[in-house]
Design a protein that fits this description.
about 100 residues, alpha+beta, two-stranded antiparallel sheet, about 25% strand
Length: about 100
């Protein structure tokens, strides 16, 4: 078990017992999933470094989805099938 201070999520305790850590980012709950952490040792620090870039990665991902949704069948199919039960208001709130 180890604790890590993160830029956006405060202190995270990562251990073999808990695969999921619930955090909040911009008023949205997020599940962070850590599987088999005992196998990764020092590589967990790399994961924490990536988490410290979460806002940058989140913004880039959202921008790429919006820019490519109409022209990329894989992206549009994923969202149409995965989020088909969401109403438009929820989708706009989630993805902007």
């Amino acid at each position: 078990m180890a604790s890590y201070k993160t830029k956006y999520f405060g202190e995270l305790t990562i251990d073999e017992e808990n695969d999921y850590i619930d955090v909040t980012f911009k008023n949205s709950e997020i599940n962070l999933f850590f599987s088999d952490v005992a196998l990764y040792g020092e590589k967990i620090k790399t994961v924490v470094e990536i988490l410290d870039r979460y806002e940058e990665i989140d913004n880039a991902a959202r921008k790429a989805i919006v820019e490519n949704y109409a022209s990329d069948e894989t992206i549009s199919y994923y969202f149409e099938s995965y989020f088909e039960d969401f109403d438009e208001e929820t989708l706009i709130e989630t993805f902007g």
